[in-house]
């Protein structure tokens, strides 16, 4: 799961930005005492790109939200302003509205504020522009529909419906759908709330494969 690298095509404002993300991103960065430049470097973004996210002039993708959540020591749910006053162990289907960002469509499938973040994700077709991700923690995915191409280091796996993968996310990895119709999967990742979380995407720009 990847985000837009430096040097990509010119960015334009995206309509229908995910509610509350822009002010939350700015508030959480300031809470961590990070400058715009420092946070952008740790996320593998340019300061201008992060600034656009914080002002609502650029729509964040799911991978960007995951990366920034780890850097700020929080959850995607908090970034989306969805943290409930009390933890409910049950996530009802009718309360999990889909959110779309840059081709990724996802629903919360777990509670907010937990060490494991659980999502149901529609994965778009993989392209050569996708970025390899490296960060502390573990990831688990289970394919529900379609086929998923999972690159782990130098090895590429094609997963069919019913297949799963569980891996150390310090292994360089990239996830995308094999077919242009995309794929559906369950996705779980651990939230690293420690200084090591600042290594989420490595020191600087992620490397394309």
TrEMBL record:
UniProt keyword terms in alphabetical order: DNA-binding
Chain ranges of the HTH cro/C1-type domain: 25-79
GO MF term list: DNA binding; DNA-binding transcription factor activity
SMART domains in the record: HTH_XRE
CDD domains, sorted: cupin_XRE_C, HTH_XRE
Pfam families named among the record's database cross-references: Cupin_2, HTH_31
InterPro entries the UniProt entry points to: Cro/C1-type_HTH, Cupin_2, Lambda_DNA-bd_dom_sf, RmlC-like_jellyroll, RmlC_Cupin_sf, TransReg_Diox_bact_type
Gene Ontology CC terms: cytosol
Record-given protein name: DNA-binding protein
Organism per entry: Streptomyces termitum
